[in-house]
Amino acid sequence: MDVSAGKLAVAVRHVAFEDAGSFAAVLEQQGYALRYVEAGMDDLAAVEAATPDLLLVLGGPIGAYEDDIYPFIDDELRLIEARLAARRPTLGICLGAQLMARAMGARVRPGDNGKEIGWAPLQLTAAGQVSPLRHLAPELTPVLHWHGDTFDIPDGAERLAGSTQYPNQAFAVGSHALALQFHPEVTATGMERWFIGHAGEIGGTPGISVPQLRLDTGRWAAGLQAQGRRMFAEWLGQL
């Protein structure tokens, strides 16, 4: 891909349907070419940590601690560690946020409060209220949660948000790194792929159903898409 006239964003993708979503349009508007690297297929060790202007580490239905089952996690952690050490712009979403926490030495583990799947508001900290996450304030939009694991806030990071179910939902490292446990990037049409790809998890989680998730997505996805783009654009503008 020719990026000589612009900037390069590399997104590590773990499953095809958890992509950059609405963020792709923001990247295009701000002059980034977006290239996906497919975890489990592409060689993550071959990605030069310093080369991309932005690294996005996307979500997926595996654990950040399951490197014994998914050996590519070791290379992914090394890539994230190198990015953070060099203070290169890095954004992690859900699994990506958990991998960032682990790369910084924090504990990632199965959550004690069950799976958090569905639409619910964030609770912003004082720091979160003056960060780009202010665009995701509870009076503006709920966000999509889809995880069963949680993380501790790493040393040197600042907690930005929580939820009623899990207190650690977002952290920042300086202005160059942002980790989000939730999903601000989803779109209504893209969620239909989630309902297929996560059918087993949905069916195995009490109180969760595709019809209810689709109904809630119809209510709130458009608002989140607008607010999520504002959040992402502001964060990119700070880099």
Plain-language structure description:
The strands form 3 sheets. The protein has an 8-stranded mixed sheet with strand order 2-1-3-4-12-11-10-7, with helices on both faces. It has a two-stranded antiparallel sheet with strand order 5-9. The chain contains 7 helices and 12 strands. The longest helix is centred in the last third of the chain and has 29 residues, at 210-238. The mean pLDDT is 97. Strand 3 (54-57), helix 2 and strand 4 (90-93) form a beta-alpha-beta unit. The chain has one domain: Class I glutamine amidotransferase (GATase) domain (Rossmann fold). It is globular and about 45 Å long. It has helices at residues 23-29, 72-85, 95-103, 126-129, 188-197, 199-203, 210-238, and strands spanning 7-13, 32-38, 54-57, 90-93, 108-110, 116-120, 123-124, 143-147, 149-151, 158-162, 170-173, 177-180. With 239 residues, it is an alpha/beta fold. It is 33% helix and 22% strand.
